[in-house]
């Protein structure tokens, strides 16, 4: 059985009620649910939440909420993998045989069904534990600097100050959208960012963190522009 698991706790601090706040006219979580449904990849779509209002919105848009996530997995410090592990083990306790899992964030409005499918195919071809979405940094990370306590600049890699950008190795980061994975890898709490993972590389215009109110405004503007230009369906 292929299962999509959508973590969606109710305690968002920086953007209150983030998972069900309207994004371009729909509750944020609805975008993830609809992308999963349209991909036609899954036997079950399960939302893992500790919040009854989120659960009701999720059901209205086509997902299941067969359990309420326990409090010990609903604090500010619990990661995605333990939450996914809990959902897999809950299904197995109900007699379900889980063969393939995708964990998709509830705040991923730029996810496209075709990307879910293409990442799935890449994951199978790679035989890796995981396949997750990623994108490249806009500038070389080797040229990055930090601010000291007295507000001065200090390079992380001062020896590379004079290196040409084109001579520096490209770096990538998690796009924060979804993670295909083997159930046993999630259950063993295997790390996603390792040689046992196959990153699916997205263009930067499909990646936008949504952690602050400013991020939210930027994401809505970007989504609307991409929609008008036909970059997303």
From TrEMBL:
Pfam families per the UniProt record, alphabetical: CTP_transf_3 (PF02348)
Keywords: Nucleotidyltransferase, Transferase
The protein's Enzyme Commission number: 2.7.7.81
Domain of life the protein comes from: Bacteria
SUPFAM superfamilies referenced in this protein's UniProt entry, alphabetically: Nucleotide-diphospho-sugar transferases
Alphabetical list of InterPro entries matching this protein: CMP-NeuNAc_synthase (IPR050793), Cytidylyl_trans (IPR003329), Nucleotide-diphossugar_trans (IPR029044), PseF (IPR020039)
Entry GO MF terms: nucleotidyltransferase activity
Top-level class of the enzyme under EC nomenclature: transferase
Protein name: Pseudaminic acid cytidylyltransferase
Name of encoding gene: pseF
């Amino acid at each position: 059985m292929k299962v999509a698991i959508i973590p969606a706790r109710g305690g968002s601090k920086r953007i209150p009620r983030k998972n069900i706040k309207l994004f371009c006219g729909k509750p944020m979580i609805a975008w993830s649910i609809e992308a999963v449904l349209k991909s036609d990849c899954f036997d079950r779509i399960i939302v893992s939440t500790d919040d009854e209002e989120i659960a009701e919105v999720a059901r209205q848009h086509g997902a299941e909420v067969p359990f309420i996530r326990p409090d010990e997995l609903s604090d500010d410090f619990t990661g995605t993998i333990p939450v996914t592990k809990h959902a897999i083990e809950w299904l197995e306790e109900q007699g379900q045989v889980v063969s393939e899992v995708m964990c998709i964030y509830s705040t991923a409005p730029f996810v496209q069904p075709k990307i879910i499918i293409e990442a799935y195919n890449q994951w199978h071809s790679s035989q890796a534990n995981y396949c997750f979405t990623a994108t490249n940094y806009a500038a070389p990370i080797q040229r990055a600097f930090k601010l000291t306590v007295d507000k001065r600049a200090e390079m992380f890699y001062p020896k590379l100050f004079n290196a040409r950008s084109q001579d520096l190795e490209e770096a990538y980061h998690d796009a924060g959208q979804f993670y295909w994975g083997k159930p046993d890898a999630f259950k063993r709490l295997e790390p996603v960012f390792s040689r046992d993972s196959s990153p699916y590389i997205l263009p930067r215009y499909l990646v936008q963190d949504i952690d602050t109110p400013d991020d939210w405004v930027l994401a809505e503007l970007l989504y609307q522009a991409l929609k008008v230009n036909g970059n997303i369906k």
